[in-house]
Amino acid sequence: MAVSGGNPARGLIRRPVFWFLAAVAAIGFVGYWPLFSVLRISHHLNGQTLYCARMHLGEEFVLAYIHSVNRRPVYDTLRAAGDRLVIVGSRFDSFGAGMPDGSDGRLSVAPDGWLVYRVERPTPEVVVRVGRVAEQTLHIKGQELALVQLAPPGSPLRLQVARVAIVDLIKGRCAAW
What we know:
Helix content: 10-25%
Largest sheet: 7 strands, antiparallel
Radius of gyration: 25 Å
Shape: elongated
Structural class: alpha+beta
Number of domains: 1
Order of helices and strands: HEEEEEEEEEEEH
Distance between the termini: 73 Å
């Protein structure tokens, strides 16, 4: 009667080593796979990331500013939607040049008297030039961030939804404020 050769302990050693290496590879793969959506604000000309915040699908933020013509506050609401932004709409308290007049039927008056203009327009990005007197402020996750803190007046900034890996979040390459 022939007995099969080989060391039975060798199979036991190889099996744990295989699973250990497979686990390390899986962790590495997941760590570098872009799984998380973020709002990324970068310099429009050189692409340098200036601000990054974790965003969930459907999460909204507001870009507030002083309108250049009527010198009144405007609050633009934007929403993260997959790989793009949706311009939800604007709130403002007076009409003026460059402001919607309501002729398209998307303008209403809120109970507090402010005008609400609903847009719901998807876009891959929004480019904003940092103003000298506009006082542009990002309202996100309970925080306020003046755009002038990110770049000097006149600088074009790109706002977009991007995907990042957990390694980027951990290493602070895209840290939420």
